[in-house]
Amino acid sequence: MKVILRQDVDNLGQMGSIVNVKPGYARNYLIPRELAYHATPNALRIFELEKKQFEKIRAFEKADAEKISAQIADLQISIPMKVGEEGRLYGSVTSQMIAQELELRGYEIDKRQIIIEDAIKTLGVFDVKVRLHTDITANLKIWVISEE
Fold first, then answer.
1. Domains of the chain, earliest start first
2. Helix (H), strand (E) at residue 109
3. Residue 74: its H or E element
4. What single-letter DSSP state applies at residue 26?
């Protein structure tokens, strides 16, 4: 079944792409969540007319992501955590905690955009990736410090 994507979908395509997916995936996931719509002949004609608008939106989003990436690259975030023996944390630093710290600094970044490769369970400095756009990923330094 062919669908036209309304938003970027991981491992499938970018906004405005025409992709072929299984009917169940389209009916039960993509279409109800308004991530895509059926690629009917009429919808394809409308899509061709709106394609330039999609490209302008993509260019604007990419430029905005590049600007935010440059700003985030200079940031260093400190996250205070309770520490047990030998510098091990009670719990771990989550993407939600990082997103809240970024929000306090004025950046609206969803926790799903923050990629933590290995669990952060000790004190120290860690690099975390922030996926701002399909093509743009920023690196962010996280300092995990003792709460005391």
1. 2-64 (3.40.5.10), 70-146 (3.10.430.100)
2. none
3. none
4. I
- Whole-angstrom distance, CA of residue 95 vs CA of residue 130: 10
Q: Show the CA angle centred on residue 67, arms to residues 61 and 72, nearest 5°.
A: 120
Taking the C-alpha atoms of 148, 128, 130 and 68 in order, what is their torsion angle to the nearest 10 degrees?
Answer: 70
Digit-coded pLDDT (tens) for 90-143: 888 999 999 999 999 998 899 989 999 888 988 999 999 999 888 889 999 999
DSSP 8-state secondary structure symbol assigned to residue 94: -
Cα 141 from Cα 77, distance rounded (Å) = 6
Residue 98, Cβ density class (10 Å: 0-12 exposed, 13-18 middle, ≥19 buried): buried
- For 41, the token pair is 């002949």
Rounded to whole angstroms, the Cα distance separating 113 from 130 reads 6
Give the number of other Cβ atoms within 10 Å of residue 73's Cβ.
12
> Residue 26 above 80 pLDDT?
yes
Which tokens go with 4?
Answer: 């036209």
